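Illustration: Response regulator.
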Amino acid sequence: MTSLKRNLPPLTSLVTFEAAARLGSFSDAARELNVTREAVSRQIRTLEAYLGLSLFERNANATALRDWGRQYFETVTSSLDAIARASQSFPSAAPPGPEPAAVAEVIAEGPRPRLLIVDDMPGNIHRLHDILRGQYDTIAHISASDTLDWLARGGQADLALLDVRMADMDGYALCRRIRADPRHSALPVIFLTSLDAPQDETEGFAAGACDFVSRPFAAPVLLARIAVQLELRRTTSALEELLQRRADRLEHAEALIRAIRAGVESYPG
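Result:
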């Protein structure tokens, strides 16, 4: 069982891949599974990172299965179909429910992204919480020093929203302190401030921010900018994992070649 768990790809990713490959569209798969297109794309990228292969050819207008993606689909779809038939063969098996909703529940499981909010104005924090609570978990601090203490104690977030003008330490300095910590150097930071001069934005990017949003802002625009940065972080992490996986495979292959060479050289004759 341990070996099976270690070598079996995530089931939710397999189900999502099967739907996208069968329907030929991420959007159609999202409608069938009752999830967002972004969720479908995320699940498929998880599977691709696991396999170390790109299963789909992607461009701005469409997606198409690669040759090895088609071969993998033939194996996956027949296996899932066999599992479904076997599950229904038992007399005590529950009658099938609405498949899209059931799959949606499985895909949606897992923690939501956590956003760190730092602003010394509680009213700003409350407004952000109202905007974000439908999609994200939030942790808020009203001072930079409290934020640094929380991070030092092991606090983790997927993205930070920082005000610039704060009493104890401005957002620029806080961002630089976060960037200096190797544990949080990759944390995406968005400045959310009433400052809107070009030099303010320039200083924000120089401090290490990935985006700069001026108040007043439209909630849908802020949500879109957050989603972009989170997706970039997920993609970067997946690429880093893929590169590490391939580096490990290369190291293993080189070790095997060295062992074979040593065996050949030591062979008598």
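Reading the tokens back as a structure: The first strand starts at residue 56 and ends at 58.
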